[in-house]
Design a protein that fits this description.
The protein has 346 residues and is α/β, with parallel strands linked by helices. It contains 12 helices and 15 strands. It starts with a strand and ends in a 12-residue tail after the last helix.
């Protein structure tokens, strides 16, 4: 198979490239050259935001079985690339987001749930959700519904993460001591390892799939307790998880999802949207998700290999809880009548 990846050096794009190389595919990557791609690819340079940024791609004589595009800014960049490649590639795979669903999607929502009003295919940068929907519209506009695949990813974790969620938890637990663990322990989580996303994406190319797919694990693939226990077991630090009731966390003004990455309180619109989508369509077409312990261990190995500090995309919000805020909440729980933080387990 001949694959063109637009980007291909960070997180999802890199995982797709490595998975394709592992299958023996012929891989071309097109990017700005800010990061080195994996060895074994054909490299084209260009800046999609520049007026002549696709010149190297336009001048290259190659044709591909599929294009994978992870772009998340101005939809016109997707439109321009798709328009250029329309007659030179068999399929256009756009890695989108479940953020394209109109807020708030109900628990168990599928690919037919209402969508946000996307930015026009030729629009400049607006906001993340409208841009992602605009990218979807651009891909379908140029390649048609039968030759485009819309990968609506949910929470994505794993090696090369440049968003700051799992790396923050690993770093926090590596510091040791009492750790504010947002409860309940059995809170179900839904995510996808970036490598499983990559393998499904390549399978979609081979199977000539089309249309939108919610791409994340089944509901309850793991829990908050299993996730943080895996972090402690992997890091091997003297961290002590202090399980804390959601009400205590919210009353302290701590923001779910950003200040405590991955976690959102049970029973909320956010939890339904982020951790309870219907993924039966993706599972029926080959999605397989590895255990959380493997995702955590491999991410920690990658993180230590690069010196312990994960890269961060400049267009994403910073993640994590200020140590002083954490200490204050833990201390308040310890001073509460009966002692200990509500929901704590030793």
């Amino acid at each position: 198979m001949r694959l063109l990846v637009l980007g291909g050096t960070e997180f999802a794009g890199r995982a797709v490239v490595e998975a394709a190389l592992g299958r023996g595919w012929d891989v071309t990557v097109f990017n700005r050259g800010r990061h080195e791609p994996p060895a074994g690819v054909r490299l084209l340079r260009g800046d999609r935001t520049a007026s002549d940024g696709l010149a190297a791609l336009a001048e290259h004589p190659g044709e591909w079985d599929a294009v994978v595009d992870t772009w998340s800014a101005a939809p016109r960049a997707v439109r321009d690339a798709a328009r250029l490649l329309q007659g030179r590639a068999g399929r256009y795979v756009y890695v989108s987001s479940r953020s394209v669903y109109a807020w708030a999607p109900p628990a168990g929502y599928g690919e037919d749930a209402p969508l946000v009003e996307g930015a026009e295919a030729g629009a400049d940068h607006t906001d993340y959700l409208r841009d992602k929907r605009g990218g979807e519209l651009a891909a379908v506009e140029e390649f048609g519904a039968d030759r485009s695949v819309l990968v609506r990813a949910g929470l994505v974790l794993g090696p090369y993460e440049n968003v700051g969620r799992l790396p923050w938890w690993l770093g926090r637990i590596a510091r040791g001591g009492p750790v504010l663990a947002p409860g309940p322990r059995d809170l179900p989580l839904q995510y996808v390892d970036v490598r499983d996303l990559a393998e499904w994406t390549l399978g979609a190319v081979e199977g000539e799939l089309s249309g939108p797919y919610n791409l994340t694990s089944r509901q309850g693939h793991t829990t908050m307790g299993e996730f943080l226990d895996a972090c402690v077991a992997t890091v091997g630090a003297d961290a002590e998880l202090r399980w804390t009731e959601p009400e205590v966390i919210l009353d302290a003004g701590i923001e779910p999802w950003t200040q405590l990455p991955v976690w959102v309180p049970p029973g909320s619109d956010m939890h339904d949207a982020l951790h309870s989508a219907d993924v039966s369509r993706a599972v029926a077409t080959g999605l397989r998700c590895r255990p959380v312990a493997e995702t955590v261990a491999d991410t920690w190995r990658w993180l230590t290999d690069i010196g312990g500090t994960a890269p961060m995309r400049p267009d994403r919000t910073s993640k994590g809880l200020d140590p002083e805020v954490e200490a204050k909440v833990l201390a308040a729980g310890a001073d509460a009548p009966g002692g200990g933080v509500p929901g704590t387990t030793s």
